UniProtKB/TrEMBL annotation:
Keyword Cytoplasm found: yes
Top-level taxon of origin: Bacteria
Taxonomic lineage of the native organism: Bacteria, Bacillati, Bacillota, Bacilli, Bacillales
Protein name per Swiss-Prot or TrEMBL: Two-component system, CitB family, response regulator DctR
Organism: Peribacillus simplex
Keywords: Activator, Cytoplasm, DNA-binding, Phosphoprotein, Transcription, Transcription regulation, Two-component regulatory system
Entry-linked PROSITE patterns: RESPONSE_REGULATORY
GO CC, alphabetical: cytoplasm
Gene3D superfamilies: 3.40.50.2300
Locations listed in the record: Cytoplasm
Span of domain Response regulatory: 6-122
Gene Ontology molecular function: DNA binding; DNA-binding transcription factor activity; phosphorelay response regulator activity
Residues the record lists as 4-aspartylphosphate modifications: 57
């Protein structure tokens, strides 16, 4: 799997479709490769372009989102689905989750909510890869990190000299970036000093969350680059 998440956006309102597309592509790891205006068109494009992720509305002509997701599962298409819909009744939400939706966002939603679920999805994809076995500890981390409320997340003691909020910020940033990152790139990305970024990266490496890649150039010192450790 590449580090770019290919997204198909199924939404019947052209204006909402464009806004959601811009929201999604604000995260560097995500690329909207195609769009569809109803479920029937969406199914055809899923079969053709084979996206990693489908962002699916419910209230649409031709074929609604409920029936579209049902058909995706019936055909056993290997694609993940996130719902973005104005439908807020418990019956619909439960049915979509039972059919394997990764998350469900109710319109209108804030960008931060979409950003959160896409970050969690990216981290999930990086952890769970075909042909890899994972431990119970790794599985627990995946399941916990997909919870949307902080009270359900596992708590870890942060060492003296490190700040928990900054540590979370660094970790989230790395999860949404394809490839490895230097301390300077992390610092620029979240607006902290390079020496501070290096300290947090070294801590995460010591905790075996990150893998260290040393990059040797033709001139100057080697550069330490960090990426999420694979299972």
């Amino acid at each position: 799997m590449t580090n770019e998440i290919r997204v198909l956006l199924i939404e019947d309102d052209p204006m909402v479709q464009e806004v959601n597309k811009q929201f999604i592509e604000r995260l560097p790891a995500f690329k909207v490769v195609d769009t569809a205006s109803n479920g029937l068109e969406g199914l055809d494009k899923i079969r053709q372009s084979k996206p990693d992720l489908v962002i699916l509305d419910i209230f649409m002509p031709s074929l609604n989102g409920v029936d579209t997701l049902y058909q995706i599962r019936k055909e056993q298409i290997d694609v993940d689905v996130i719902i973005i819909s104005a439908a807020n009744d418990q019956k619909t939400i439960r049915k979509m989750m039972q059919n394997g939706a990764f998350d469900y966002l109710i319109k209108p939603f804030k960008f931060d909510r979409l950003k959160h679920t896409l970050e969690q999805y990216f981290a999930f994809r990086m952890e769970v890869e075909p042909d890899h076995q994972i431990s119970q500890t790794q599985l627990d981390r995946i399941l916990f990190q997909n919870k949307t409320h902080s009270e359900t997340s596992p708590k870890h003691d942060v060492p003296k000299g490190l700040n928990g909020a900054t540590l979370e910020q660094v970790t989230k940033f790395i999860k949404t970036q394809p490839g490895s990152l230097s301390a300077e790139e992390v610092a620029d990305g979240i607006g902290i000093a390079r020496v501070t970024a290096r300290r947090y990266l070294e801590y995460l490496h010591g905790e075996e969350v990150l893998q260290l890649d040393v990059q040797y150039g033709s001139i100057g010192r080697p550069v330490n680059r960090y990426r999420l450790k694979k299972p």
